[in-house]
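Quick illustration, no need to memorize.
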Amino acid sequence: MNGKWLQKNDLKAGLTGSATGMLAAGNVWYKGIIRISLTFGLIAIMGVYSAFAQDRVTITGVVTDAQDGSSLPGVNVTVQGSQEATGSTIGTTTNMDGEYTVQVPGELNFLEFSFIGYQRQVVEIDGRTEIDVELQQDLQLLDDVVVVGYGTQDRRQITGSISSVSSEDFVTGNVGSAAELIQGKVPGLNISRAGGNPNEPPTLRLRGVSSFGGAQSPLIVVDGIVGADLANIDPNDIESIDVLKDASAAAIYGTRGGAGVIAITTKKGVAGETSVSYSGSMTLNGVENKVDMLSADEFRELSELTPFEINDLGGNTDWFDEITQRSHTQIHNLSISGGTQATTYRVSGNFRESQGLLRTTGFEQLGGRLNINHRALNDQLTLTIDLGATNREEDYGFNNAFRYAATFNPTAPVRASGFDNTGGYVEIDAFDIFNPVAIVETAEDVRQRRRLNASFRADYEFDHLVPGLSASAFYSTETFSGTENRFWARTNKFTGGATTSSLGRGQAERLARDNKREQLDFTANYINTIFQDLRVETLAGYSFQDFESSGTTVAGGDFISDAVRANNLEFAQDFNNGLGTVQSFRNSNRLIAGFGRISMNWDDTYFANASIRREGSSRFGVNNRWGTFWSVGAGMEVTNLVDLGLIDRLRLRGSYGLTGLDAPFDGISRLRFAPRGNFFVGGSFVQSFGPVSNDNPDLKWEETGEYNIGVDFSMFDERLTGIVEYYQKVTSDLIFEIEVPVPPNLFPTSFINVGEIENKGIEVTLNYDVHRSQNAMYNTGITFTTYEVNLNQFESDVPRYIANVGSPGQNNTQMVRLREGEPLGQIWGPRFHSIGDDGRWRFIPAEWNGEFDTLLFSDEVAREDEAIIGNGIPEFELGWSNSVRFRNWDFNAFIRGVFGHDLVNSTRVFFENPINITTYNVTKSAFDLIDLESAPAYSSYHVEDASFIRLQNMSIGYTVPLPATSMINRLHLSVSGNNLFTITGYDGIDPEVRWLDGGDPLAPGIERREQWYSARSFTFGINLDF
């Protein structure tokens, strides 16, 4: 492979057209993909209709486990000989109670029952119409199949760290994202959503912090599509999720696997009768917790206890109630699946509508998926088509409304006469204070997003030529088009910041984005048995990925009317005086790789794996575009060698792998120029340009090397299963922006490889079948994770302080310290001691003799007096799931706990201050500080232990008994609750972990003032199978 193939106009700047023009192609693609999906779906359904147009005998029954009598859902029941007799395979699957109903042609006389982990069984019909079957477990098959890079493997073959969750174990209830299906189910994977913003995806962190500024979330792979978007997957379409946690499992993905991999397998059609399924739910959401601010009466009372005069405007307004609402979410999913032995299909459509707790916010999403599998040439050739499309419209809103609802004067009415210039909304002439209702009602942020993806796969088995040899070709494409329209009315004082410059002018901006991704993979797989007991599987492949992105931003203000909003920006007078802005861009980059893997299995006792990937990226400097990533691992089934009594199985394994992370954006290693402002020259405005980055031809990959040691075991006749793992991963050559001298450089900062982060921890998974019988089942499971993150190396041993507290008053105060050789996530600041009788704050000096008189006042605290006052990264996380079934009833409960992390409570920093009462509202706890003579300064007083235990989800369901003659095969009703209660000592809005501060992974542990409130929800659901 030649490096010149990687050069593809990585960075181009210039005006490339309007936002409307860019969306036109997306509209055509979107309509086209929907038409294709419907056409294929109708063809597939019609193609199998004739197979069922004949007289049949109805046979019913129940399939159970022969060992404990429990019912088995999902068992495949097929009519032997139906393919030859009718041209299609006739069959069905058992429902949640193990029940099945199948229509059998009169001339056929045998049913076949098959299920993963159980021995296949063939039963003669012999004139019967009711046949119950008991299946025997097959211990050789109890090792389920898991998804690995570019294929699947038996779990016993795995030597790295992979956690698997099937649809039966998914989180139920109000699930906003596919990732939340496995929240708390996978040790080491933290899935958190601080606040209740329905338009914000959850934050995913696998085994700690992966980079300074690169990819922090695991790579998403959906049915082989590398880098897929979770927003394009409806949770109801997912069959299973496999999480590749360590570097040895993810190394075959090379530069994109450094933060781990989440591999999603969607549901597919099954040969047999056409099956129709519907699931729907309605969720009611309310505020779980909010800041306890003063009411109007308390506001007046506190002013009487302090020497400060307030501006009593005579009103009585609860600003939180004014901007929030009791919201709802509705979800609908309809799927049709079935097919013949040769062709199977599944087509699904979904609709989601969710309101936010903040008025005027929420989204509507419409999506669909189509999967078709066709086998030909005596089952040697398999063709697979997957199509998907989503259209999402969001009312994003402004989370600043929460901040100003806390601070706005509660004695002020929402509207009053005399405020004509602000549209009748009461506004206060002070810094950083805005009417929150005006923000909600006269400012808008509306976004539309369309995503389309298509993949085509061909697999061919060469057994007739070379036994064990197969090959596949895979192509996928994904397009995204989106617009963002923001508008602030001329009467709106708020424009996203603390200034009031646009009052009376109006402001609008329109952003348009187009992204396209293409992927082409070729793989060959060869399986052979050497000697008698050594099974060897080899994989070789080539991968090509191409990425393109383009966009346009237009912004201006000073409108003569609010009617045009962001739809006619040419009416903005700013374009006549040089204040309007027009920007556009186009970026592209490529990844090219060759890879291989070898797996060995000796007598189902000794296992070994190795993989290698050689990859190049056009994002890096010309001297370091190629990297090599590899892994090795070994495992041993101890119980095949020695009898361990109560231990049924004991497997030991260990691995090491090297993965990478691509650069965070295009052009990062190059000298780049961009507009720097307008200047009035010669009677007109002239655009100026200047450098925005220096070139660095030596910029290279971030690399992660990781050790993983694991023990898998089962006891008490497989009723207790467990996994215990220890990992240690070191990420080096981290890309970071540092200050450089000018000259010789053209720009004062450059991106270089500097720094090293170490993550290590212990992960435990335990599952126990407490009871299992034909009519009842109880299963409980625990996951446990520890975290330890250290900054081993940095740009120098001189500490750096980041994350400003903010304004007013503390904009030059940093809360987080970075220093080589210390833990990451250190919250830093003065150590609070007390408030003296004189009403002044006192802090502990670096060297304190214990005398009160030697304590420091706020203005006397120097940097050397500050210390570690918290850490934003948790020490450990715990998940406890319980599943109970009794006859037709089912019950699930999931408790989640995160411990050892601290949060800076910014609400208290700014709002717990009675001195502010002349201008702003304050918290009720400010009553305890009425004797203050100086404003509070950020310190350990405002840093709190945010450990919590939360009843994350609880559900109860009932499967309605139906007569055999009913057209409905299954009817299930359920009620569930999310965020039902939280036990914590934290006084802020939400004790959830904050892995980022404004996108910065180096500053965890800060809850900002504009934090969304958390939602408590109750969901009513229905599932129907026909």
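The longest helix spans residues 19-49.
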